[in-house]
Amino acid sequence: MKHKKKVLITGKDSYIGRSVKAWLMKDKQQIAIDEMCVEGDEWRKVDFSVYDVVFHVAGIAHSDTGKASNEMKALYYAVNTDLTIEVAKKSKLEGVGQFIFMSSMIVYGDAAPFGVMKRIGVDTVLNPSNFYGDSKLQAEVGLNSLKSDNFRVAIIRPPMIYGKDSKGNYPRLVKLAKRLPLFPDVDNERSMLHIDNLCEFVSLVIRHGDEGVFHPQNAQYVKTSDMVTTIAAVYGKKMYVTPIFNQVLKLLGRHVGIVNKVFGNLSYDLTLSAYKEDYRVRDFKESITLTEK
Question: Out of 3.30.470.20, 3.30.420.270, 3.40.50.720, 3.40.30.10, which CATH number does the structure's domain 5-162+192-218+269-282 have?
């Protein structure tokens, strides 16, 4: 009889944790799931030896790093770096075979300035631009020092994740799509990852017992204006796009960070995201429809 894998997800009630749990529970004959909160010290008393896999999602998400206090910066390292390594050490000590860590594309830095291409490939140097990115990178460094034949470490560096009830930049684009009659037609290129595609990818990594660094993304790059017009269309709204604002945006991009966040270039080379099985269960248009309906 095939062994049923037992998976522990840290970061209880997190968006990614809830989504992956629901996805994995579709196959209850192959996988059993538990969730755990790792705030405080109670988690240290939990017996990890019953688990085959720990999927570590717990962490502090990206915020306005430009206005953070020294205390907030220290908290990022305490949670995103130190806690991750502590959970991993306990996992290894108690015989867990696979540790999967949700890192971030942010370890490569921010989006390129308006009009400048930034496509990340196998030789791209890791270069976090702020303490959030560095806290994720330092966690990766610590995890890599723990890996062994009996403790496989899988690091996932996703681009922007979106889906129903997601947070971050995607809901802001939805607001723009609903409110604006006109949107700048900037020829930019972004990697994105729908939550269902991420869930399927994590499922496959667990099933195969993989280790290494992974860069999953949707099958197609996304242009910001295409995303906004696609969202608008779901609501039966016609969005007009125009390049007439582009010169002004280019000038603003030198001084206003949000311009580069929305219209800058940040993508993975598609070869970097290849995997032995197809994990892209949603195409772009379908993913937007599922998110908004």
Answer: 3.40.50.720
